[in-house]
Structures are given as C-alpha cells and as structure tokens.
Write a structure and sequence with these properties.
This protein has helices at about 20-30, 45-50, 85-115, 130-140, 145-155, 160-165, 180-190, 215-225, 235-250, and strands at about 5-10, 35, 60, 60-70, 70-80, 195-200, 225-230, 255, 270-275, 275, 280, 285-290. About 45% of the residues are buried. The mean pLDDT is about 95. The radius of gyration is 20 Å and the shape is globular. It is of the alpha/beta class. The chain has a 5-stranded mixed β-sheet with strand order 4-5-6-7-8. A 3-stranded parallel β-sheet has the order 1-2-3. A two-stranded antiparallel ribbon has the order 9-10. The protein has 2 domains: about 5-80 and about 195-290, Metal-dependent hydrolases (TIM Barrel, Alpha-Beta Barrel), CATH 3.20.20; about 105-165, no CATH class.
C-alpha cells in the first residue's frame, strides 16, 4: 500500500530517531511521498533524500516554523523549496528570536518577582520553548511558590495555571512574546516556498498557547498562508470534517501526517490515527490520493 506522511520529526529538532532510522521505517511503509518537517530546521532533509535514493519515494522539502499571530503562537509548515535558501531564512529567524528571548526573559523574571513569585537566578532562555513556559516551569518547581498558590488559590499550580493567572495578555506578568510574525514568514518565503500551511490548527503548539478557531484560520488564509493541515493525530473527526470543508470552500491546499517524533506512543508513520491512513494531500506542485 502506497501512502503519504508530510509531517515527520527527527533528532535534528525534537524527534527521537535519526534520519536513517526514519528512512528505514518509510521504506518499510512503502510511502509514495514523505516530508521531514523539523522545527525551525532543514538540517536533515538532504540526509533523508540521500537515504531514500533509488527507492522511488519522493521527499518534499519541508520545515515546521514557529511564528507569532496576534497574542498567540502558531506553527506553519513550509513545503517545496530549495534547502539552502530556506536554511538562510531560518538562520535569520533563529537569530532574531534568540536575541528577543534574552530581553523577554529579563522582563518576565522581573515582573514575576514583583508579583511575589520566586524565580531562579540562573534561569536562561530555552531555544525550544517559549520564555513564558520556561519561567512557568521554574516557578512551579519552587516549593515556596506552590505554598503561595495553595494558600491563595486552594491548589498547587501547573505551568498552564501560571500562564493564565499571571502571564496571559492583561495579567500582571504579561510580556510580548518573542518571535517573528506570520507576516514576516510570508514575506520571507515569497517566491521561495511553494506552500505555507497552517499546522494542526486545533492543537495548541505549547501549554502557554491556545488552539486556533475558525475565524482565525480564515484570517491566516486571507493574509497569505496557502492551506491547512487537515489530517493530524490530535485532531478529532469532527474537526477534520470542518477543516476539509474550509479547504474546499476556500479552494486552498491541504496536507496530513502523523507528526511522528519517534516515541513508542506516537501515531505510526503514514497514519493520523491508530487505523487511519492519510488519504490524500494537495500542494502547489503535488497532488495525490490513495484511491488514484
């Protein structure tokens, strides 16, 4: 059975498996198309192309990019590009974010302390997570903070509680999130990537962000993203139906994938559920269906 998986992750970002290990699974699954979409990285794509050479399996260059959208954060899947050109864009993006995070961390720590919370003096930004989450995790790990939460709110806090009580827009520790905007990505990738797809719209990209709603999905398509990831392992059946309708009504492109990270509990490569195979996808230069 031929199949597709346009959303895979390797050890080049937050995946557990190496590219050769992923390539072996892809060959075993006899996929027709695949895409390694590591977070803010294209380092493994050529390695995957080389590993699958001669197999007949088509690798579509991809990357999953983090961007700001209003007061939220979203992931955008870029597809079908020259790897070296996108590597330069991602390098620029990462340098911007790294610089912003240092300043955001300093302000967030100061505001947290003013709010009566204890924050570690040696805390520094984590490249792979939002500053607010880094601080929230540190706050929750402090017993004095947990005693404060227990006395004030009647419960111990998890990072989500810290975010919504202290860090969310309008709260005492709210700070503008670091990152490039969706508009920045659209401008930078114009003429470079053939598609910019909204990744898993109904799945939060972290515990300090929220899922998108239908008006926001439509707005992101209006400002220049070219499609939606319809099939995803954490998207419910009724949500998939809604995303399919949006894609059909808006005449935009769509994709699907396992969002495989190499964990034992992950959805298998080529699927978006325990027994659900990605049935089709549609990009600017590629269109395929299991029934074709």
């Amino acid at each position: 059975m031929s199949g597709f998986d346009l959303h895979l992750h390797s050890a080049h970002s937050d995946g557990k498996l190496s590219v050769p290990e992923i390539a072996l699974i892809i060959k075993e699954k006899k996929l027709e198309y695949c895409a390694l979409a590591d977070h803010n990285s294209v380092d493994g794509i050529q390695e995957l192309i080389n590993a699958l050479k001669g197999s007949g399996i088509k690798v579509i260059p991809a990357a999953e990019l983090t961007a700001k959208y209003n007061d939220n954060e979203v992931h955008v899947l870029a597809y079908d590009f020259k790897i070296d050109l996108v590597a330069e864009i991602i390098k620029e993006r990462n340098e911007i974010v790294r610089s912003q995070k240092v300043k955001e961390m300093e302000v967030t720590i100061n505001l947290s302390r003013e709010a009566g919370l204890n924050v570690s003096t040696e805390l520094s930004p984590n490249e792979k997570q939002p500053v607010s989450l880094t601080v929230a995790l540190d706050v929750c790990a402090n017993s004095a903070n947990q005693n404060l939460f227990l006395n004030k709110y009647g419960k111990q806090f998890i990072p989500e509680d810290v975010y919504y009580e202290y860090q969310a827009p309008g709260k005492s520790c709210a700070v503008e999130r670091s990152g490039v905007t969706v508009e920045w990505l659209i401008q930078k990738f114009k003429g470079i990537a053939q598609d910019l797809i909204i990744a898993h719209p109904f799945v939060s990209v972290s515990v300090v962000t929220r899922p998108l709603n239908e008006p926001e999905i439509n707005d992101l398509l209006r400002i220049g993203l070219t499609g939606i990831e319809v099939y995803h392992n954490n998207t419910a059946a009724e949500q998939i139906d809604l995303l399919k309708r949006i894609a059909m009504d808006k005449l935009v492109h769509y994709t699907g994938g396992s969002d495989f990270h190499g964990k034992k509990t992950d959805t298998p490569i080529g699927q978006y559920g325990p027994a659900s195979f990605v049935p089709s996808f549609y990009l600017a230069n590629y269109k395929a269906s299991l029934n074709s």
